[in-house]
Design goal:
The chain is globular, with a radius of gyration of 18 Å. The chain has one domain: Orthogonal Bundle (ADP-ribosylglycohydrolase fold), CATH 1.10.4080.10. Helix content is 58%, strand content 0%. It is an all-alpha fold. It has 16 helices and no strands.
Length: 324
């Protein structure tokens, strides 16, 4: 499998996991079974309720929109420029984005965001009682595992500083770094799942001890991650479906237990919850692991915005190839 195939798999995997995951986003696991009794496998099966009608069939959501803000900045600037990425995120929101997470919206709305996005995100985090750890950073981070993939120290630094543009919590930063380092390791030829997990534990411990708990959960049943937590009032849970460690755990579960790209994505999105974000992170990791060539062609050809994604991917590949 070539590096190009794995990089293309990472980018397309993110977008496809996002687009397919939209079909079960905000649904409980039982509701997923109700609306998709034969399972969800194609974009044209996605129910057209009030939430999903915001997007045309085969569209990705804010997860990949934000990833593209990062990707396009890297292509244009040929480096990871946090202020430029912050400006692109700001313009994306101002252009009338269909769906913007609460944390991203709060941070971007802060006075001085464009001058010092890290200070703005830290301020929002402090006001939350240092408790806000949403998945808005990790859901867009995949391309940072591709850029500078040959140099783990650069990947670590880039993932952390881009996450902190909007998400300051160490669980968010750790999630982004762990995912990006896993992608970069796969691109460097590491395909041992045990080794990828060991590295994730080591890196996670540098950021927040709670990361290890979700890596532990991801080794067992997918039920242990409770991806639709908080959606069913009868379950008596106050947990959040948009927790960054749930997205991380889902992706690592799929990496450990999946025999194919499609099989892993399917298992994760059928759990419901914040399925587009879980699908985006899972798709990026599985895309790197299995490669673009193993992604079903129908999911690629029916992806709305494919031409734009392909053009950006080709440009990124050329830059990565000649990167010193």
């Amino acid at each position: 499998m070539t590096i190009e195939d794995r990089i293309r798999g990472t980018i397309y995997g993110q977008a496809i996991g996002d687009a397919l995951g939209l079909g079960t986003e905000f649904l409980t696991k039982s509701a997923v079974r109700k609306y998709y009794p034969r399972g969800l496998a194609d974009y044209d099966q996605i129910i057209r309720d009030g939430h999903r009608r915001k997007w045309k069939e085969g569209s990705w959501t804010d997860d990949t929109d934000q990833m593209l803000c990062i990707m396009e900045s890297i292509i244009d600037r040929r480096e990871v420029d946090t202020k430029d990425i912050a400006l692109r995120l700001y313009r994306w929101v101002a252009s009338g984005a269909a769906d913007v997470g609460n944390t991203v919206h709060s941070v971007i709305s802060q006075p001085g965001f464009l001058d010092d996005p890290h200070r703005a995100s830290e301020s929002v985090w402090e006001k939350s009682g240092r408790s806000a750890a949403a998945n808005g950073g990790v859901m867009r981070t995949s391309v940072l595992g591709v850029w500078d993939y040959r140099y783990p120290s650069r990947v670590r630094e880039n993932a952390a500083k881009v996450c902190r543009i909007t998400h300051h919590d160490p669980r968010c930063v750790g999630s982004c770094v762990v995912v990006c380092l896993a992608i970069s390791a796969i691109l460097r030829g590491v395909t041992s799942i045990d080794e990828l997990f060991e590295d994730a534990y080591d890196e996670g411990a540098l950021h927040d001890p709670r990361i290890a708990e979700y890596l532990d959960r991801s080794k067992g049943s997918l039920d242990a991650l409770d991806l639709d937590e908080g959606l069913d009032p009868e379950a008596g849970s106050n947990g959040s479906i948009g927790y960054t460690l749930k997205a991380l755990g889902a992706a690592f579960w799929a990496m450990k237990h999946s025999l194919s790209f499609e099989g892993g994505i399917s298992k994760v999105i059928h759990e419901g919850g914040d399925a587009d974000s879980n699908g985006a992170v899972t798709g990026a990791l599985l895309g790197a692991l299995f490669g673009f060539s193993e992604i079903p062609g129908r999911l690629v050809s029916s992806l709305r915005g494919r031409a734009r994604l392909e053009e950006k991917t080709v440009r990124l590949l050329k830059l990565v190839e000649c990167r010193p």
